[in-house]
Amino acid sequence: MSTHAYGAHAADKPIEAIAIERRAPGPQDVQIDIAYCGICHSDLHTVRAEWQGTRYPCVPGHEIVGHVSAIGSDVGTFKVGDTVGVGCLVGSCQHCAACDEGLEQFCANGFVGTYNSPSADAPGHTLGGYSQQIVVDEKFVLKITHPEDQLAAVAPLLCAGITTYSPLRHWKTGPGKKVGVVGIGGLGHMGIKLAHAMGAHTVAFTTSESKRQAAHSLGADEVVISTDAAQMKQHAGTFDFILNTVAASHNLDVFTTLLKRDGTLCLVGVPASPHPSPSIYQLIFGRKAIAGSFIGGIAETQEMLDFCAEHGIVSDIEMVSAQQIDEAYERMLKSDVKYRFVIDNATMSA
Ligand code: NAP
Ligand code: ZN
């Protein structure tokens, strides 16, 4: 099936209309008509080859929501018309220790990413949600129970939501815990909403004074301008957990200094160039940890979607047309997004 899509043919080429092929649904496949797709900073890193190994043509997009338009003969969990989502994963081996624990993102035999992973389908690698249809194994399809009119704002939960929910749960944040969220972009604004909903005392760190008021509205109990040394000093040694979503290389010591004994700074941002080496003194005097976290498994992604539906949580979005994707990238690079761009995929047939 030929499908309208948007992508790039090389790192220095613009995002433009590309016709792609989707496979006919196999017995376990769900075919989805994509309504909206969020724009993640990982899309930009990948399409512009800031990380190693981008395959072209590159059609990014892993914050996918839409409706089931066909199902394979063995599909039991979904029917035509269901409102569904697809996140960062569309496959894994299903038999390693990680998959057995529902941690498909850590599959020992290699997870299959929604875009840029090797695939039996043309053109030999997966193509993501900047497209009007996608065909996905039902095990990697999520159910969406939010009201239909919130669908576009649900899209970013599929990556930004789970990438922040998973570490907040893993490090057991909640009532009585002081939690920091660094960077108020797509991931960070979800981190603030989720940490607040989990009952933690939530502190937002931003480099943008203009986001101060908005950070409070998102659920932050306190907002700190991270470039202001005096404000930072007031929080020294007080945090149980800090989630750092910044997409650029920066000095991590300013955040490890803020941790309590046994506190953790968890990195989820993946800058194109490394952070300066952190101070070991900061870590050993206080048994502090710098950790990382990568998206979340399918069961936890469903848990996050249900948690958000129950608590009325969606993303704060700005809708763009497919023709505005490059412009959205440039604004994202300037931290000028409140707080996630979402593509209206209907504009791809324009
Ligand atoms: P984003 O919307 O661009 O947000 C990043 C935010 O970081 C910005 O809005 C800005 O917030 C802050 N920031 C930017 N440059 C900075 C700098 N030089 N110094 C300090 N702060 C800066 O990006 P995103 O989509 O949330 O993604 C964030 C990162 O996470 C990307 O690297 C992405 O690839 C990665 N990611 C990782 C995973 C995972 O599983 N680990 C999943 C998805 C994405 P302020 O204006 O508030 O300072
Ligand atoms: Zn993402």
Task: Describe this structure as you would to a colleague.
The chain is an alpha/beta fold. It is 23% helix and 25% strand. The chain is built from eleven helices and 17 strands. Helix 8 (253-256) links the parallel strand 13 and strand 14. It binds NADP nicotinamide-adenine-dinucleotide phosphate and zinc ion. NADP nicotinamide-adenine-dinucleotide phosphate is lined by residues 40-42, 45, 159, 163, 183-188, 206-208, 211, 245-248, 250, 268-270, 293-295, 332, 335, 337.
Structure at a glance:
With 350 residues, the protein is α/β, with parallel strands linked by helices.
Q: What is the CATH homologous superfamily assignment of the largest domain?
A: Medium-chain alcohol dehydrogenases, catalytic domain
Low-confidence stretches: none
Ligands present? NADP nicotinamide-adenine-dinucleotide phosphate, zinc ion
**Through-space gap between termini:** 19 Å
Counting DSSP E segments of at least 2 residues, the number of strands comes to: 17
- The averaged pLDDT comes out at 97
Total helical segments: 11
Proportion of strand residues: 25-35%
Main sheet specs: 7 strands, mixed
| CATH fold descriptor of the largest domain | Quinone Oxidoreductase, Chain A, domain 1
Query: In CATH terms, what is the architecture of the largest domain?
Result: Alpha-Beta Complex
Specify Rg, calculated over alpha carbons.
20 Å
Note the topology:
Blueprint: E1 2-7, E2 16-21, E3 29-38, H1 41-47, E4 64-71, E5 83-86, E6 89-91, H2 97-100, E7 112-113, E8 133-137, E9 142-143, H3 151-154, H4 160-170, E10 178-182, H5 186-197, E11 201-206, H6 212-218, E12 222-225, H7 229-233, E13 239-244, H8 253-256, E14 259-267, H9 280-284, E15 289-292, H10 298-311, E16 317-320, H11 325-333, E17 340-344
Parallel strand pairs: 10-11, 10-13, 11-12, 13-14, 14-15, 16-17
Antiparallel strand pairs: 1-2, 3-4, 3-8, 3-17, 4-5, 5-9, 6-7
Helix pairs in contact: 4-5, 4-10
The structure holds NADP nicotinamide-adenine-dinucleotide phosphate (NAP) and zinc ion.
